[in-house]
Amino acid sequence: MEDSTKTCGECGAVVYSEQLSAGTAGYRSGKLLCAVCFGKAADAEDTVLQEKIALVDEEDHVEDDGTSHIEAFGAGSGKKVVGAVERKQDDQYRRDMITGCRGATRCRVFHCKLADAAAMFMESQINEWADANDGIEIKLVSTCIGVWEAKKPEPSLIVTVFY
């Protein structure tokens, strides 16, 4: 039984099955590439990636004292910063919290990827947030599935807690 000869879609060189199984040759942009062309394509992709990464200046994300202005947020943490938008603490709002059966005063949005581990982590985040804020009374919870824009857009579970 004879192997069919495969050729590089770029330079026409022979591509051996050993190269394919070792990962030194393969497909890029729908074309089969030999080891040399495959390596050049990978180098070109790395260069493009490095250029994209270089577009972000490290100085833009560091405060004068050398610390980052982006902090993790969750139960018990201090000032909440999401991107460049500061999330206010409940005591910074003018309206008093409404308790009893009347409508909600504020809301909080949680989101996670559509995966078991992510959903369990979000569940613990919501529970920690509720435990850390004794003065809140949850009035309504709304959920939806939507695309959350982050490093790459992906479907997410979005939970809005009205309190």
Task: Please outline the helices and strands.
Layout: E1 6-7, E2 14-15, H1 17-22, E3 26-28, E4 31-33, H2 35-54, E5 80-82, E6 85-87, E7 107-113, H3 116-132, E8 140-148, E9 154-162
Antiparallel strand pairs: 1-2, 3-4, 5-6, 7-9, 8-9
List keywords for this structure.
alpha+beta, two-stranded antiparallel sheet
Give the structure's gist in a few sentences.
This protein has helices at residues 17-22, 35-54, 116-132, and strands at residues 6-7, 14-15, 26-28, 31-33, 80-82, 85-87, 107-113, 140-148, 154-162.
Structure commentary:
Helices cover 26% and strands 25% of the residues. It is of the alpha+beta class and 163 residues long. It has 3 domains: 6-54, no CATH class; 56-87, no CATH class; 97-162, no CATH class. A 3-stranded antiparallel β-sheet has the order 7-9-8, covered by helices on one side. The chain has a two-stranded antiparallel ribbon with strand order 1-2. A two-stranded antiparallel ribbon has the order 3-4. 6% of the residues are buried. Mean pLDDT is 76; it is low at 68-78.
Q: Biggest sheet: strands side by side, in what order?
A: 7-9-8
Segments where pLDDT lies below 50 for 5+ residues? 68-78
Q: On the 0-100 scale, what is the average pLDDT?
A: 76
* First-to-last CA distance: 71 Å
What is the total number of structural domains?
3
Rg, please? 26 Å
Number of strands: 9
Strand content: 25-35%
Total DSSP helices? 3
